[in-house]
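writing this on my phone so excuse typos. first protein, seq and then structure
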Amino acid sequence: MSPQQERAARFRSNLAEMKRLVARLEPFAHHTPPLPQVGGLYRTLNDSTVYVSRHIKKAFSQNQVEVVLLVGEGPGLEPGDPYVLNDDGTHPDREPGEHLLLGLAELLDVDTDPEPP
């Protein structure tokens, strides 16, 4: 394969990946994520389940929260791995990619602090 054919094949592959990502994000174009609450369980845009473990205060930028992936997947993540979100429930990296689907979709109605029996 010539270098020009390799570039064209990479371009077609990247274009197909971007179209797939846009199709997955399109239903959330006007979605406002729930505000993350420490101790809350959430469904993400890619249907993963996450737990908000703590707030992270930033001096010169938007505050963030640490989130732990419980069920599901994300780019480079597996269950048990932490990652950060902005304190508005969105991913801090605005570049296109699968990581955007780790933003919060909804708060799950689960009692994470049940009363003792």
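second protein below, same order as before
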Amino acid sequence: MKSLAEQHPEAWAAIEKAGFTSLAEMARRMTAPGTMDAALGYASAAHKWNKGRMPGAGAERRAAEWLARTKAPADSDMLIVVCPEGVSPKARRLLTVLGCEVEAL
């Protein structure tokens, strides 16, 4: 599955060039705009950024904080969390805040 940065390369290149490097890094890690919005605490912001709108400084700060929280040590193993189909929206939001990308399989 392609990342947001791969899906909308022109928009995310412009965002990174404008100095929003943490948001651009998040876009390279996320595959769905809703997941990125939930991680940042916004509603439909990533969708607007995919269309070429510029984010604000607050979004960049939140992205930097999210990246700092989710940074794993280089020697750690990856943890995969498997949830049953139909997991509650609250559980999905919690996993997103913890840095997990929740995808329907």
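Residues 2 and 31 are 6 Å apart (CA to CA). thats all i got for now
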